[in-house]
Amino acid sequence: MPPAKKVPNASKKLNAEQEALARAGAVDDNIDDENKKSMRYECRALKRSIEKEEVATGQYNDERLRINYFWLVAKKEKEDKEAELRNKNREHQDLREKNDITIKIWRQRLKHLLFQNLDKETMVKKQGQ
Q1: Which GO CC annotations does the UniProt entry carry (predicted)?
Q2: pTM given for the model
């Protein structure tokens, strides 16, 4: 096995900017003009594509917010209607109970009147005899 390479001193290390410049200088820039032109067109097309996607993302988020708001409003309306229906049912039940009580009272009165009438008839018959 070959011996391990020694790590250069920290003082000889290049900072990140110098390292980037060194790498950029090492790149072969012998690209013809036609290739550069096609790369520029591709870059512009990609930028337009990114802009379209950003617009679509914004529209998507707006639509999502609108739907969410509509859902919340519809949910609130549903809860309100359910509460209103419960109140109507309670009111209807109360009226039904009140009506049943009223009918019961009138039946009792009618029984008493019939009994009184029968009692008076029997008294009249007794007096008539």
Answers
A1: Golgi apparatus; microtubule
A2: 0.49
